[in-house]
Amino acid sequence: MDKQRHLIVGYLLALARTEGEGISEAARALGLSRQGLHKALRKLRELGYVEEGPEIRLSERGRELLREALRDLMEYFGVSTIRLYGYVARGLGEGAFYVSLEGYRRQIEEKLGFTPYPGTLNVVLAPDALPYRRYLEALPGVLLKGFSDGVRTYGNVKAFKCTIFDMDCAVLVIERTHHGPEVVEVIAPVKLRDVYGLKDGDPVSIEVKLIS
User: Fold this and answer.
1) Which parts of the sequence belong to the Riboflavin kinase domain (predicted)?
2) pLDDT digit string (tens) for 49-104?
């Protein structure tokens, strides 16, 4: 990481703690003068890392820089995968509909590297695996951007590459879903139930890659 990028990451990490606050409140929280913070914000806006407006708000470019820094740290500390485990459960049929949408399917092919089978494998996590599921909500993952088809708007979906029985798949973290937090949905280039003979209640382990 070069010196300028290192300094910018430091500023953005500090500003992230005050997102949504006005400049005066943020300056007090960060122990800076209002003038000093205003000067730093002006420079960061010029570089595209902070949005215009009366409140502290990182831009998508700023968030992406923090994601890159997080990936660097995770690689350094050797934190690259987590294991989720639970049992196969019957789905609601939502997966087949959403995965078949062109707006998502095309992004899955481009960003995850496979054409998804039109459906998902639903896995109910064991209670002691739930904390690891929450890690995925906080980490960047691979963003499948939401879109509108002119009739309905579909939200963002975050994905993490994973493997099940050595098959390359992806776990989805969906903004809007009828499932509770104990359920994860897995997409794959094949119908996992058929390929591996899975039935409701069968145990399954998912090796999730945190760095894509």
Assistant:
1) 88-208
2) 999 888 999 998 998 898 888 878 877 887 788 999 999 998 766 777 788 889 99
**CB of 22 closer than 8 Å to CB of 54:** yes
| Contact (Cβ atoms closer than 8 angstroms) between residue 19 and residue 56 | yes
Question: For residue 27, what are its two tokens?
Answer: 């300056």
Set out the domains of the chain in order of their start, with CATH numbers: 3-76 (1.10.10.10), 81-209 (2.40.30.30)
**60-76 and 3-16 helices, crossing angle to 10°:** 110
- Give pTM, 2 decimals: 0.74
